Amino acid sequence: VLALNGKIRKAGDKIFASNGKKVDFASALGSCEEAGGTLATPMNEEENQAVLSIVKQYNQYAYLGIKEGETPGQFKFINSMPLNYTKWHKYEPNGKGTEKCVEMYTDGSWNDKKCNMYRLTVCEF
Known about the structure:
By secondary structure, this protein is α+β, with helices and mostly antiparallel strands. Helices cover 19% and strands 32% of the residues. It has one domain (8-124): Roll (Mannose-Binding Protein A, Chain A). The protein has a four-stranded antiparallel sheet with strand order 1-2-8-3, with helices on both faces. Strands 5-4-6-7 form a four-stranded antiparallel sheet, with helices on one face. A hairpin with a 6-residue loop joins β4 and β5 (75-77). The two termini are 14 Å apart. The mean pLDDT is 93.
C-alpha cells in the first residue's frame, strides 16, 4: 500500500498522492487501484496544477490515467470517458499508435509515451 509521507494535494473533491516510486504504467495503475484509487486523471486546470506540484516535488515525469484508444492519436481516460480537458505539449501527441500512454512533464504539459517506461506513480482518490 502507498506510504504517502505528506506528498498529497487536493483539488476540488479529488485527492492526489504519490509514493515516490517510478514504475511502468501497468504497475503504477495497479498500485493506485490496490490503494483504492486510480492513476491521476486531471480533468481541469486546477487538477493538472495539483498533479504538477507533485511532479515538481519529485522532479520526475509521471504517468496519467489516460491511454490511446482503438483509433491512433485518439486518447481517453482509462475509464473510457472522452478527454474534455487536455494539456498536450507542443506537437504532441505524435506517437500515432506506438505511444499508448501519457506522461506529464515537469512543466505540466502532456506527452504520449510508451507504457513500459519508468515514471512517477501519482494516484487520485
